[in-house]
Design brief:
130 residues, alpha/beta, Rossmann fold, 5-stranded parallel sheet, 6 helices, 5 strands
Length: 130
């Protein structure tokens, strides 16, 4: 086995996004880092995790139906089984109070749309300590 293959681990990424175009873009970019599972809102994300897909990182939008990304981050941080999963928020909400609310919800990183591929990959890699 080569050294690279020996050190590579399968990274599990959960993307939570209700905009189909952004979801497709994020999925394609983050698939270069590992396996990607998608959910279209916070409630669906929690259901995916409850069914056994425990991600290494969650990349979530804020503004979504049923349960937004801030509520999702708070739920993840409140559960002993998911409290250590890093959350990366990717949103159009760029006001300082929005950033503070995102970090206070438990997000490790907060980035605003539009973003570049390099920015998204860098934030997710940082959250994963890759």
């Amino acid at each position: 086995m080569s050294g690279a293959a020996a050190t590579t681990r399968s990274v599990k990424i959960l993307i939570v996004e209700d905009d189909p175009d952004v979801l497709t873009l994020e999925s394609r970019l983050l698939a270069t880092l590992g396996s990607v599972q998608i959910a279209r809102d916070g409630l669906e994300a929690l259901a995916v995790i409850k069914k056994g897909y425990v991600p290494d990182v969650v990349v979530t939008d804020v503004m979504m139906p049923r349960m937004d990304g801030l509520q999702l981050a708070k739920q993840l941080k409140a559960d002993p089984l998911t409290c250590k999963i890093p959350v990366v928020i990717v949103t159009a909400k760029a006001a300082p109070r929005d950033v503070i609310a995102g970090i206070n919800s438990g997000a490790r990183h907060y980035m605003t749309k539009p973003f570049t591929a390099d920015q998204l990959l860098a934030k997710v890699k940082k959250a994963l300590a890759l």
